[in-house]
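Just curious. Protein, please.
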Amino acid sequence: MKAFFSKLSQAVMLPIALLPAAGIMLGLGGSFTNQSMIDAYNIGILQDGTLLNSFLQVMTAAGGIVFANLPLMFALAIAIGFARAEKGAAALAATISYLVMNVAIAKTLSVAGMVDTTNNTVVLMGNHYAGVLADVLGIQNTLSMGVFGGLIAGGITVILHNKYHDVKLPEFLGFFGGARFVPIVSAFSALFYGIALVFVWPYIGAAFGSIGATLGEMTASGHGYIASFIFGIIERALIPVGLHHVFYLPLWQTEIGGTAEIAGHVYKGTQNIFFGSLANGDYSQFSSTNFMTGKFPFMMFGLPAAAYAMYTLADKENKKEVGGLLFSVALTAFLTGITEPIEFTFLFLSAPLYYFIHVPLAGLSFMIMDLLNVKVGMTFSGGFIDFALFGMLPGLTGTENHWYYIPLLGLIYGPVYFLLFRWFIVKFDIKTPGRKGSAVAVVRKKDYQEAKAGGANDSQVDEMIEALGGKDNIVDVDACITRLRITVKDGDLVKDNKYWTENLGAKGLVKVGGTGIQAIYGAQAAGFKAQINSKLGK
C-alpha cells in the first residue's frame, strides 16, 4: 500500500510541475490588469484597451486554462506514471476515456431528466444535489468531479492498458491489436462507468461538500485554525515517505477544501478558490482556513535559520565546505520552497529533531497564518517567488491579503528555529554536517560541477545502479522535483542510507514498503533519472 501511494504521489507531480509556470502567468496578468491598482497608481499603459493590457489579459487566460483543465492532466499523469510500457498509448487512451466518461455522464443526466435547470441541481431518488454540475471541455452539464474525475479515468485506463497493451488479436483484426487496442477498450469501458457514476457521484459529492462545509463552519465560528494546525502537522509528517502530495491534493483541488462563488463561477478546493480570487481581484470569498499560506514562514525563514544553526556548530576546518552545502539548500528553500534537501539533511541524523521540533513549528505556522487571516496562495510550495507573485504583488496593488504578516512572523520564526536547533543539536550531540567527524557527506567541488553540468558522470551512475541491486533488480526509475523514485524487485538488495549519503551524494534514502525506493537528490533528481534509464536501455 505504501509503494502504491508513493507511486501515486510520484505520478501526480507531473501536472503539479505545470503549476508554477501557469501561476506566474496568472499572477502577473491578474495583478497588472487589476483596475484598482491601475487607478491607484494612474498607470496609463495598463488601462483597459491598451496593447499591454490586452497582452496581460491573454496571459491571465493562458494561466487560467491550466488550472481549469487539471482533471484531464491528472488523467494523463496517472496513465503515464503507472503504465508499464507504451506510455504514449496509455496517455491517448486516458484522454479518450476522460472525454467519453464526461459525455456519457452528461447524456445520461439529460435523457433521464435528472437535471433541474431552474435550480442547477441533479435530481436523484427525489433528492436535489446542488453544486455537482459543471461544463468540462465544452461538454455541458456533466458531473463536477474535479481531479477525482481525472484520477478515475486515468486509473481505470491504466489497469486496462497494463492488461491489454500487448494483446494479440486474430489475424484479420491484427491491426487493432497491442497498444492500438487500449484506447478502444478504454473508450467502451468509460461509456459504462460514466453511466454508473451518474447514480453514485452525487452522493460522494455531497459527502465531500459536507466536509468542506464543516471546514467553512469552523472558520465562521472562529475555529478554522484548528483544522489549519492539524493540516500542517500531517502534511510535514508525511514528507519523509513522500506521500504528502496525496494528502493535500484533495484539499487543494476538490470541495473537501471548501467552495466559493466568485464572479458567478463556483470554485472548489483551496488552490482553485485562491486563483479564482487572484484572477478577479476579489479575496472576499477566499477562506482563511489555511491549507497553503502556513508554508511561507518556516520555508522562507525557519529552515534557512536551521541551516545557519548547523553551520555555526560545524568544526572550524569544515566550515567552508559545509557552508557551501548549507547555503545552497537554504537558498533553495527560501526562493522556491523546495525543502526536502535541507529537511533530509537533519531528518536521518535525528528523527526527533524533525518530528518534535520542526513538525510542530510547521503546524503552528499554518495556525498562526490562519488566525492572522493571511490570504496568500501558491502554485506548489511556499518560497519567495510564490510569495512575491501571489502575496506582495497583489497586496501592493490594492488587495487586502495581509501578506505583510508573513515576513513579520518570519522575523520571529528565524530566531526560534535557530535557537531550538542549536540547543537540540548540542544537547543530544547530533552529528550534523561537518560536526565532530560527522559522517554526513558534504558537496565537493567536483560534485557541484557535475550537478551543474546536468548530472553525474558514468561511473557514479553505474554505482547508483549497483547500489540498487544491479540492473536485474530495477523495475522502474522515475523522479519528482527532489527525489529519484525507484521500484525494485527486492528492497533488501539496495544499499542503506549511510552508503547513499556518504558515497553517492544523496541527502537521504527512504525505503517505502518492500520495493519502493526514494533517493533524495534535490533538483538533480530528474537528470539522474534520465541517465539511469539510459544505462538501463529504457
Q: What stands out?
A: The first strand starts at residue 115 and ends at 116. The chain has a mean pLDDT of 83. The radius of gyration is 25 Å. The chain has three domains: 71-199, 221-239+281-427, 445-536.
